[in-house]
Specification:
heterodimer; A: about 190 residues; mainly alpha; Arc Repressor Mutant, subunit A; 10 helices; B: about 300 residues; alpha+beta; 4 domains
């Protein structure tokens, strides 16, 4: 880190490579598709490279880089002026199936109903239907494993709001994943 | 019995270990909480599952672009704070960083076309065309030349050169000075967080008083700029379905400042529009709803 901040290109490259995959995961879940995730991640990496000398270490680098990437993702979504569009090839459960309950089950039912819920629909398709505020909070918590205080810093909101957004986001996801018919019937905001 | 909203908050808090031992024990006695807990845990596990990895080429392009930006040092960017990479002063949630725009100059891959940025480039090119055209006309006037065709031809050539320079800059990572205005480093003013429309209007007014304005707005006097809606980027394309926002700016108005702010946690686009010596501030949210529309003193 210190070497990268001092202008060591090789050190920066090592740093970026080390953190690339987790930032990719964040962008992929936030944007919902590969193409937008690639664009957002590239913007994030560029922002990190340009801002590394100004990174003051008050937050962990991981947290800081998540914030950079989150902003990049939200910027990307704003530019698109729409909700994320999940990649078709990664939404196997979205395709209606006459064999499954609700018309959306393509995988064999799991022994426990609760365990089967996330398998019925692709998580990206469900995340795409969440408001961005909720989606960011849930992804930062459940994918990035940030604690509430860190998420509050990343999103610039009070911890109490983080708690509320995570709860409501998870709740909506659970409902969406458990009600594929309802999800498919919801109007698209894609423009 | 636990209310649904409380149920979700309770189950979520339980899932994240936010409850005290006593609270957790009490919560676990409620079958409804336990059932919701299981559902939320399943959701968490689904979100946590790693997504498909990017292909190697995309990964390497991204890294190469970042390293190119690092190498370039981004002298222009140092004059601006990048929202995403300004240490602890990172811009609030969701705000578009003005400094993030030049990053395109370092991108190692061609991004898909964006309507908004495309219009900005076209607008900038139109401005260059207008300015050069006026300059040539003035020059010809002074020298008594009657070669209007030459003036038009010259400006056309120059405009073409500008476009080429812009494309070359994007590909090579350098920014030609002729194309610099189109980058619009000060194009979007950061108004920060505000908690009310009134505060937003005050912030916009202060920014105007400080001399903040987009380069596009400053140059918006020519016919070409007027064709573009007064020099800025009209919302028509972005808010085709937005009843009010889709008609901004109004006929005869010039965009003199484009800004962004966070209003009650939501990012909004802010525009200061001028006509007949009067200015008004308009704020539009992500759904193209007009949140603020009031005159500036």
């Amino acid at each position: 880190m210190a070497a990268a901040q001092a202008g060591d290109r090789a050190a920066l490259e090592t740093l970026l490579r080390r953190h690339h995959d987790r930032l990719w995961a964040l962008c992929r879940r936030m944007t919902g598709n590969h193409a937008d995730a690639e664009d957002a991640l590239q913007d994030a990496l560029i922002a990190i490279a340009r801002g590394i000398t100004r990174y003051d270490g008050r937050a962990a680098f991981t947290t800081w880089s998540y914030r950079v990437a989150t902003n990049a993702c939200l910027d990307e979504l704003r530019r698109r002026r729409r909700r994320p569009i999940p990649d078709a090839h990664e939404t196997p459960g979205v395709a209606p199936s006459p064999d499954g309950p609700g018309g959306g089950v393509s995988a064999p039912p799991a022994p426990a109903a609760v365990e089967a819920v996330p398998d019925r629909l692709d998580i990206d398709a469900a995340l795409a239907l969440l408001p961005q505020d909720f989606r960011a909070a849930v992804v930062l918590r459940d994918l990035c494993d940030l604690d509430y205080a860190e998420i509050a810093r990343v999103l610039g909101i009070p911890p109490g709001t983080v708690r509320s957004r995570i709860a409501r986001g998870r709740s909506q996801l659970a409902d969406l994943l458990g009600n594929p018919t309802e999800q498919q019937n919801r109007p698209s905001t894609r423009s | 019995m636990t209310a649904p909203r409380d149920l979700d908050e309770l189950a979520s808090a339980l899932l994240d270990g936010l409850l005290t031992d006593d609270e957790a024990t009490a919560a676990r006695r409620d079958p409804a909480v336990l059932a919701r807990l299981a559902e939320l845990a399943a959701v968490r596990d689904a979100v946590r599952r790693p997504p498909a990895r990017p292909d190697t080429d995309a990964r390497e392009r991204g890294l190469a672009a970042a390293l190119a930006a690092f190498d370039a040092g981004d002298e222009a960017g140092e004059q601006r704070e990048t929202s995403a990479a300004a240490g602890a002063t990172v811009s609030p949630f969701g705000r578009r960083s003005p400094a993030a725009r030049p990053a395109s100059a370092y991108r190692g891959t061609r991004r898909r076309p964006r309507g908004t940025s495309g219009r900005r480039w076209l607008t900038a090119a139109a401005i260059v065309l207008a300015v050069v055209g006026l300059g040539v006309l003035a020059s010809n006037w002074d020298t008594g030349s009657d070669s209007g065709d030459t003036a038009a031809s010259s400006s056309d050539d120059d405009a073409e050169g500008s476009d080429s320079a812009t494309e070359e800059a994007a590909e090579s990572g350098t920014v030609d000075e002729r194309a610099a205005p189109s980058v619009a480093p000060g194009g979007i003013v950061d108004l920060g967080d505000v908690d009310s429309p009134e505060a937003l209007a005050e912030r916009a007014q202060s920014a105007r008083a400080d001399g903040s304005s987009s380069l596009l707005g400053q140059a918006s006097g020519g016919e070409d700029a007027a064709d573009e809606g007064g020099g800025g980027v009209p919302l028509t394309g972005q808010c085709a379905d937005g009843a009010a926002a889709g008609r901004l700016p109004a006929a005869g108005e010039t965009i003199v400042m484009e800004a962004r702010a966070t209003l009650d946690g939501d990012t909004v686009d802010v525009w200061v529009l001028a006509a007949d010596g009067k200015e008004r501030v308009v704020a539009v949210d992500a759904t193209c709803a007009v949140l603020v529309d009031q005159p500036l003193d």
